[in-house]
Each structure stands twice: as structure tokens, then as C-alpha cells.
Amino acid sequence: MDQAVCCYRHPDRETGIRCTRCDKPICPECMVNASVGFHCRDCVNQRGGTHVQPRTIAGGSVTSDPFLITKILIGLNVLVFVLELALGDRIVDDFGLYAKCVDLQTLQPARCGVSDGEWYRVLTSAFIHERPSPVHIGFNMLSLWWIGAPLEQRLGRSRYIALYFVSALGASAAVLVIAPGALTIGASGAIFGLFGATAVYMRRMRYDMRPVIALLVLNIIFSFTWANVSWQGHLGGLLTGTVLAIGMLYAPRERRNLVQWGTCAAVLLVTLAVSAIAVSQVTS
């Protein structure tokens, strides 16, 4: 088994990246973007203190609060949950993911849902959770913090935002294809996208994959065995997040932005096209 290599400034952090000048191991916080590879902060200082914008492993900007977007996402989810408690089923009915609504009195299709042009549901449904119990939102928000916050720090804000929202759309696309008649709500599809991205990151950094694989397997088993859990959305989010992370973390440095944002655009177009095809099948 390979011996773990740790950052020269942070001995508690394993890393697979080295300074291209002195070959010291460096973690994402200590990486300074260079024309070729990364430099450590000591080498940058030895070059006369030239200021170089530090970058994450994916090329994103290093910020003073690397967890800001995750905090905002958690805040939005909690805010919507409070509105659900105040307004009742209205929030779910108006913003949950339906391909086609059904009038519960007549059991006939009603004029609502994605098939009637309410496309905002493919995204708004990711901010709605079951009520009145806080278990659903509590579990999702804990997962978002544990998985999302470290990933935001390693990717940078813009790439993390793209990963989260496109994963949510991928989860909705899978639901529309496999279970178009089901009401689907919750952030878990997007969070599964973060799980997939975390696995790609650990592979990229040559970390021990066993913990994240075990966690993924447990969550997938939970998705298929627990009642009222959308395994379709979970798998859709997982697949989407994994593909996006591969494009973000394995992009060649010379064309990194092109490959990364090109991957995001391509995956986004595929999810929208798949959703449109699925909805057209419902309406026909």
C-alpha cells in the first residue's frame, strides 16, 4: 500500500500534488497557480514576492470564506421549509416536481406540472422538503454541509454552483424519464451529485477511495430500500455530478476553462433535452 503524502505546511492533510519547482507536497490551500503546474508559497516568496492569485485544484479562485455558497444553499432550504410550515401544502403543490398533476377529486389530469409549461419545477423542487418533521431537511442539510463545504473549498465558488444546480437538474431529468407520475421533492438529488464529485476528487488526489465508496454504497442501498425515497433522482444526480467533476478535475491545464465550462454546458443541454423528451412522452 502506498504511504500517504502530506502537505509540507499542513501535515494533517494528505495530497497528491507537488510544487513543480521544489517538489514539496502541497494541499489546495498552499497551491499557487503557475504557468506550468502549481508552486508552493515558499517558492513564490523566493521569486521576489510576486503576487500570483492562488487557485483551487480545479482552477477556481481561493476566497476568504470558502464555504459561503454552501451556507447560502442551506439558508435557502431552511427558509423554504419555514414557508412550508406557514403555508402548508401550497408550496409543494406549486413548486414540487410533477410531470402532470392530477385532480384528486376527479382523478383527471389538471393543468399544472412540467408538461403544462411549468419548467421551473425541475429546479424549485430541489429546495422543498417533507413537513412537518425536520428529519428530511435535517438529514439533507447535514449531508450538504459535510460533503458540500469541503468540495466548495476545493473547486471554487463558480464551479461548485454549476455542479450543484446542474446535478439538481440531472436528478429531475431522471425522475421525469423513469417516474414521471411521481411527486418529487428534496435536495438529495443535488447532494448525490456532490457525492459523485467527491469520489472523483479523491481519485484525482489519489486518496483512499474505500471510505467514500462505502458511503456511496450505503446511500444507494438506502435509496432502494427506504419507502418514499426517489432512487431515480439520486442516481440521476450521482451520474450528473460524476460526469461534471471528471470534466472539472481532469481538464488539461492548457484548455482548462474551455473543457470545464464546455462539459457543464454539454451536460446541461443533455439534461434539458432528456427532460423535454420525457415530458413530450407524457403529453402524447
UniProtKB/TrEMBL annotation:
GO terms for biological process: proteolysis. The chain crosses the membrane at residues 161-179, 185-202, 209-227, 233-251, 258-279. InterPro entries: Peptidase_S54_rhomboid_dom, Rhomboid-like_sf, Rhomboid_protease_S54. GO terms for molecular function: peptidase activity. It is a multi-pass membrane protein. It is found in: Membrane. Coiled coil: none annotated. Keywords: Hydrolase, Membrane, Protease, Transmembrane, Transmembrane helix. Residues 117-249 form the Peptidase S54 rhomboid domain. Belongs to the peptidase S54 family. This is Rhomboid family intramembrane serine protease.
